Amino acid sequence: MRKTLIAGNWKMNKTPKEAIEYIQLIKNQVDREDVEVVLCPPYLVLQLAVEETRGTHIKIGAQNMYYEDKGAYTGEISPMMLKEIGVDYIIIGHSERRSIFKETNEMVNRKLLKAIEHQLTPIVCVGESLKQRQEKVTIDYIRMQIKIAFKGVSEAEAKKTIVAYEPLWAIGTGKYASKEQAEEVCGAIRKLIADLYNDDVSQQVRILYGGSVTSKNANDFFTQKNIDGGIIGGSSINEDFISLVNYGH
Predict the structure, then answer these.
(1) DSSP 93
(2) Percent of the chain scored above 90 by pLDDT?
(3) Among 135, 168, 196, 225, which one is least packed by beta carbons within 10 Å?
(4) Is 169 annotated as belonging to a binding site?
(5) Looking at the predicted structure, is the pLDDT value of residue 223 above 80?
(6) Is 233 annotated as a binding residue?
(7) What is the pLDDT of residue 95?
(8) What is the rounded end-to-end Cα distance, in angstroms, of the chain?
(9) Which residues of this protein are catalytic (predicted)?
């Protein structure tokens, strides 16, 4: 049985002071044993978030990292640094990293391998543009993303890797895939992983949906057969996150 995971990607929001106030407000209300909740604040807030959530079931993730341990990489953060302060999860290849910062599939692969090496649980993001969906190449495009991202990843490592499907046309736009569209692609992703490895691996990999998920539509998505939770943007930085995490209650 795959445990539901809800990851809140704060993006570039909340100062350290705002973050502490927000975590204090929500932490007791999103602390569920049956749902894994991961908060992914900006770098400056990570250590404070680890300390503030200690003693709860809430885990902390980073939004990005570099694929080297240390060195002359101005402005970058290494997985060693994240691990030392108590970070457990890492988002890799978010659509904004790919589009704004020009991250390639090869870079995503290097980050995934480095995250695994340092025992950070990776959340690998994949997804198509509106043009690709209209041209009906969604699955082909995602197949390519997954094939490159998972190069050199063993079966045992793949089982612990989380995949997040985020259609680019639904990120921060207020638009979102229907539950049927999301389930179709997440089911296809599971099949792609089975083709790459085997059915045992594909049945253990958790697949999330991301793209304008709110408390109003969360239950529709999270009750689908192949959707094991969500990666949440806008709704993760306000009190809507409480209702979202408590979907179905």
Answers:
(1) S
(2) 91
(3) 225
(4) no
(5) yes
(6) yes
(7) 94
(8) 20
(9) 94 (electrophile), 166 (proton acceptor)
pTM for the whole structure = 0.96
Show which residues are catalytic: 94, 166
Give, in order, the Cα–Cα distances in Å from 39 to each of 139, 175, 188: 29, 23, 27
Q: What are the boundaries of each domain within the chain?
A: 4-245
In whole angstroms, give the CA distance from residue 123 to residue 8: 12
The answer to whether 11 is a known ligand-binding residue is yes
Q: Could you give the CA distance from residue 72 to residue 217 in angstroms, rounded to a whole number?
A: 44
- The identity of residue 96, as a single letter, is E
- Whether the Cβ atoms of residue 35 and residue 244 lie closer than 8 Å to each other: no
Nearest-angstrom CA–CA distance, 117 and 68? 11
pLDDT tens digits along 195-212: 999 999 999 999 999 988
State the Cα–Cα distance between residues 10 and 61, nearest whole angstrom.
10
CB distance 9 to 42 below 8 Å: no
- pLDDT tens, 118-141? 999 999 999 999 899 899 999 999
What pLDDT is attached to residue 176?
A: 73
The CATH number corresponding to 4-245 among 1.10.10.10, 3.90.660.10, 3.50.50.60, 3.20.20.70 equals: 3.20.20.70
